[in-house]
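## retry 2 of 3
previous attempt timed out at serialization; input unchanged, resubmitting
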Amino acid sequence: MRVAEHVIPAINIRPEVTMLSVLKHLNYKAWFALAEFVDNSVQSYLASADALRAVEGPDFKLRVRIGLDPEHSRLEISDNAAGIALADFARAFRPAEIPPDRTGLSEFGMGMKAAACWFSDLWSVRTKALGDPVERTVRFDIEAIVSNRTEMLEVEERPAPPSEHYTIITLERLGAKFPQARTQKKLRDHLASIYRVFQRRGDLEILWGDEAEPLAHPEPAVLSAPPASALDAESVEWRKDIDVNFGEGRRIHGFAALRAEGSTTHAGFALFRRNRLIVGSDDETFRPLEIFGKLNSFRMQRLFGELHVEGFEVSHTKDGFKWHELEHSMLERLHDALEEEPLNLLRQAEQHRARLTRAAVQPAAKQATATVSAALESTAGPVLSAEPDSSALEQIVPSTPNRLAADPVAQRAVNILVDDHRWTINLRMTMDSDVDEWLRFADETVPQLFSEHDEHRLTVDVSLAHPFVERFIGPHNENIELILRFAAAIAVALARLQRGGVSSATPLHYINQLLRESLAGNLP
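## retry succeeded, writing output
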């Protein structure tokens, strides 16, 4: 074939070139925009793997490099794939030109153009197809194209060895969309997550920055432990295969497991299509309420997995599935598969509790002892030196419950037997900002008409408006039960002492004062 037969003087970018100007307004996240370029590289590699290995040898691996030039606000994405073939060249640069083969990662005919226009109004593509003796470059200046309603773009060509193969996309004048240092780690982590399947099987290497640092997705260790309902049983690996078939070519399969070490940010599912992640990259995992429960549930920290979705369409930005009427059924059947015996992952996630080890707990323990010691050293002396007056003691342990808060946020009563005496304990949580104490309680004795034993009624008030609670309740109120448990233990123990003739008002006064003046810490 003569070189002249490889010449493309210009390409037609009709129809509707004005479409290019609105692509910058797509609802992309930066990592999914970058992924569009990687998709093209991967698809080029997959379509020409045999030809590439015939030239480069059996150990050939696709390498995609993302270079950053902060001085000129420029990104460059380059690969060693098969390049854009002559037959595909014109189609590759026309907006919304659907490729003839839609079974791979390039199916909408918009990915590269949309992502490039989202990043910048000025970008170019330089490519050399395997076996073609010509390198071609196309430059896009979106402002000029739209204002002039340009329909033909000039193609720069130069001779090149037929054995060379690459594509280099250069995005210029990125401005605010140039990834700053603080966001680059997030981009790296998401890209590694999106292409983990290709990287895991050795097909792809993504290199980042001047150092050409290879991206890698961390593989979480799977929990190995006895069932929480039978702790004396042998340990099992909490991982199972998932395969849910909806018919008509629609299927979800892969694996689900429990993390050996819980993570509130990285537990959850990753959903793939054609081995490329669509939903659930890095710390934005797929955690539907119907399966994972509330935000602070143990499932949110333990349950994870990789699920491959077949037969469902994706959004044009490839960051979501179109479940349509099957979404409820999908979640319901996935839930059932996770609960299926003998490996009920949901139950184990809720009931399993990790055993503390010295090595794991020591750093936090050292930090806690240092912080609390410093707090006591600086303020506890004066608190404990001040003698409480009688009115203060009567406030925190009044004779009857009607002198406590009148409108609790929540309350619940429970009956127990102590030395054959019936105790009714009423736990209440309040939000009265005028109450200075964290904990108050009233303990009264009520004679029983048909019993020789009196009934003891203990009413416990825990203030949620106290500085100690505000400091340690947690951003999602996840520690509220822990705080109530400690308060209940203190109140019930002091009431028991009081019934044995020991005054409980004074120790409770000092507990309240220490928590307010010394141990509440500094509010953020």
